[in-house]
Design brief:
GMP Synthetase, Chain A, domain 3, 7 strands, OsmC/Ohrsf, single chain, KH_dom-like_a/b, Organic hydroperoxide reductase OsmC/OhrA, OsmC/Ohr_fam, about 25% helix, alpha/beta, 3-stranded antiparallel beta sheet, 2 domains
Length: about 150
């Protein structure tokens, strides 16, 4: 007996339209907001105050980590009061070519009971390993979590 397994694929279309200088505007079908993007200010003719590809790359890892955390926490029935995550992307020339070599994720998680600490640590660890974007890139991703217990958790 042959069992056929169907694998799905999803496409995410993003469009960029050059505006002027080193600035473009990104859009995607079905999304109302647009995002200005530009060469980062560290490079010739770079622009301050506008999202760069390097910011967006780092944001992609960070937002994927968050959405993965939300799903994993739900599956583990982890009760928490607060989640936030700061991400630092490192652009370097360590290999002779510019690349995003490292992303440091600094999630902050506030849980409701001391007894949930080990479960929270496990959820954060699983979230890092299951993040689709992290699994799709060459950059080293380092997670440095902070877990706190709230005395006011509902």
């Amino acid at each position: 007996m042959v069992i056929s397994i169907m694998f799905e694929a999803y496409n995410y279309e993003v469009n960029v339209h050059w505006q002027s200088g080193r600035v473009g505007q990104m859009s995607a079908p079905g999304i109302d907001e647009t995002i200005l993007c530009a060469t980062p200010p560290e490079f010739p003719q770079g622009v301050h105050g506008i999202w760069s590809p390097e910011h967006l790359f780092t944001a992609s890892v960070n937002s994927c980590f968050m959405t993965t955390f939300l799903a994993v926490a739900e599956n583990f029935k982890l009760k928490y009061e607060h989640f936030s995550c700061r991400a630092i992307g490192r652009l370097s020339r360590a290999t002779g070519k510019w690349m995003m070599s490292e992303i440091i994720l600094k999630p902050e998680l506030t849980i409701c009971t001391e007894e949930s600490f080990e479960k929270a640590r496990k959820v954060l660890e699983k979230s890092e390993k299951a993040c689709l974007i992290t699994q799709s890139i060459k950059s080293m991703v380092i997670t440095e979590p902070t877990i706190m217990v709230s005395e006011m958790c509902m």
